[in-house]
Amino acid sequence: MTDINSLPLEALVEILIKIDGKTLGACRRVCKKWKEVIDDSDYIWKKICLKEYEYQSKIAKTKSGCDLKWYNVYKNLQMWSEVTNFEVKVREFYNFSLNQNKYALSINCGVLPIKDTRGIVLYDMNILQYIPSAVPEINCFKISNNDFATVMLLKSGILVQRNVENPEIMTEAFFEADNFVLECEEIVFYHNRGVYKCNLHFTNLSSKLVHQCKYDIRDMQYDNGIIHIFTDSGKILNIYKNGTVFEKSLNCPQQWLAQIKHICSVNDRNFVCYSRNLFKIETDKYRHLYLDFPPITALFFYVDFVLFGTKAGEILLYRLSSQKRATRPVFEKLAELPEGKFAVQLDVCERKSGPVIVASTYDKIILLEIDFFPDEKDISKSFTTNKLRMFKRLVTLKDRLRLGVPSVKSIA
Question: Which three-class secondary structure state does DSSP give residue 147?
Fold first, then answer.
């Protein structure tokens, strides 16, 4: 009989990824070899995360980037079930000097971009420190970054800067676009009703029209190679790699569609639509619709639960699993912002010690820190390789922005 410890490392890994996370944690205590294999293999924990927390773990990893290993992602997501048992530390983080509604852009790869008089200033969410690389572009609405490229959404379109060593290969491009999604080596974006794709693996950065939509587009996501389009007519379009388009209607009475103002989605089966008095959520497990939902000032969609901001300054947690049919929604209060303040934007970034909730009001950013694992606080003052790579790209983009419209164009 073959002893399990005599198996090749690859075989042992394949066995371990078939068990659940709790059992895998217990396996770390079997022997020194198993502990080393489990602790050193982020691949195992990635498989476990995607199996047990498929959508939440993707959101968490996109937000945190390389700063957080999949093992830490798994531990944090497990602890969210007990989040109300922990103290929430509320503190002011940043005061705005501009007068506009949207100051903070979405957190991506552990970086929080903030609009200010200098343009876009950046903060490392892992160590909560300013990154010395301001982008002089006040009309920037989104920044996404990965190992392949950095993409900025400007008022006139998207500016792409990618990593290439060969000077003969095209490094940057500009596309007219209303919004985009950066996913590995592909950028999917839309302009008016046209949906386009740009492959970052190709020598030249060029776009390809994949679909001309009949309706105005409200939201777009790109998941497992499928483009998901939410339209203002209540139609949801799924565009597959082979060009096939599947259309379905939002499961909501037609007269209510005009009330829907905001959509947050992962794909066509996991999304939330809401406005002042209407709240509809669908996930793989749950379907809820409310007509007298408390007025929402801000929302963060974490699939199996949702964070809300209210006009009273409360930050509420809504667990879909706790909701019973035909009953009023049940909320758990996480925290309350300083008197007179309420969130107009909410975002979450997971860290080794636990999550930090970013609540933007009209004049400042307030942090809500929750220490699941206080002993794992990162006291490092250095930036990760991934962030440094992003900063180098931003320096190039910064030079282009100073000159106005980028000189390298590839207009869709």
Answer: coil
